[in-house]
User: Fold this.
Amino acid sequence: MPLYEYYCEPCNGIFETIRQMREASAPVPCPECDRDAPRIMSSFNAFTFRDGYPRRLPDKGTYWHMGKEVKKRA
Assistant:
């Protein structure tokens, strides 16, 4: 099953959960405040090859949702 990310506006945090694809768009209760959190678009890791060696593309470590910067839950 795929891993999806959800954004909780009251907590200003992002959390992940594993769900079936047919349930992906339905809101999920936040583990902190138990309010419904909508799914957000996730980023992914990407590699490139330069000089014959794989390299990870740079990651700024920031997350944005609806034009606002949010923090990722640990």
